[in-house]
Amino acid sequence: MEQNNKSYKLPELSYGYNELEPYISEEQLKIHHQKHHQAYVNGANKILEDTDSVDLKKLAFQIGGHKLHSLFWGNLEPNGGGEPTGKIAEYIETDFDGFENFKEVFNKTALSVEGSGWAVLAHDKEIERLLIMQIEKHNMNIYPTVEILMVLDMFEHAYYIDYKNEKTKYVDAFWSLVNWGEVNKRLG
Fold it and tell me: Measured between alpha carbons, how far is 164 from 184 in angstroms, rounded to an integer?
């Protein structure tokens, strides 16, 4: 019987490790990408190799970590930030009465993550509305019609080297890196 060689792989970044400075340092980004994200990829692949004793809870955690990090890297770009444009700007205006209010709600959501998790901007096709929510750890238990558009990693490993325990500064820095083009692309 031939063995299945399908496995998860760490995605390459579309920018260099030093290109997000001064908001995310080269050291922070390298450790986050090469060590933490790689650990989720390795963890998922290891569990999948042992088909006799797959622990679905651990597998979901590892795959969730990989998928959310992959979305996160795409949310960042060296010359990002500023106010959104295109379709996402229209949705933000309609659903949140403007960008400043949207940022305030998103920031509160991010800063109120207890322990480890994610702040998420999603789009619910059924009601044609943006939703801001939290994902605890990597538990991506969301409705099938909800598409994730943008995520912010609130695990301590995402910011501690650069910001120590000053999460607010990390969240504020995120807005200087947001890749609104990618968010618009995910919105379709």
Answer: 32
At 125 the three-state DSSP class reads coil
- Cβ 154 vs Cβ 110: under 8 Å: yes
Q: Which residue has the higher pLDDT, 2 or 104?
A: 104
Examine the pLDDT at 32 and tell me if it is beyond 70: yes
User: What radius of gyration, in Å, describes the C-alpha atoms of the chain?
Assistant: 17
What are the backbone angles phi and psi of residue 51, rounded to the nearest 5°? -65, -15
Beta strands in 77-168 (DSSP E): 117-124, 129-136, 146-153
Sketch out the chain's domains with CATH numbers.
24-188 (3.55.40.20)
Q: How far does Cα 123 stand from its chain's mean position?
A: 15
Q: Got the DSSP string for 8-56?
A: --PPPPSS-TTTTTTTS-HHHHHIIIIIIIHHHHHHHHHHHH-GGG--H
CA 153 to chain centre: 5
Low-confidence winner among 79-88, 99-108, 145-154, 169-178 (lowest mean pLDDT): 145-154
Write out pLDDT tens, residues 4-25: 568 999 999 999 999 999 999 9
Contact between 46 and 143 (Cβ < 8 Å): no
The residue length of the chain stands at 188
